[in-house]
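Running this now, will post back.
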Amino acid sequence: MSGRPQGLTRRADYLAANRGVRVARPGFVLLARPNGTEAMRYGITVTKRIGNAVVRNRMKRRFRELLWAILPEHGLAGHDHVLIGREGGIERDFAKLREELLAALGRAAAGKGDPPRRPRGKR
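Update: finished.
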């Protein structure tokens, strides 16, 4: 595949990815799910809990660069990949994030995700 992976644009794609394999790392959580196409796609989510807009946008930029560098070579073909930012992700060294993403992709490819999250109570 040439060029960069496509970005996810629809909320339904993010919700579908949540039903896939989940691999938690200190800086992020990786969700991976087959998308039924040959395309490799990515999405990034950083909630307000992480910090203000400046911090969230910086984290998203770092994740985007990370995904553009790693997915073409090591991503799962025909899958959607979603990175969810975690509290410590903004301070983590970029090389460390890269190692963690490679390890997470390896686990996802082997189907060795973390156990599913317990359902949250009613809002």
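The first helix runs from residue 11 to 17. More later if anyone needs it.
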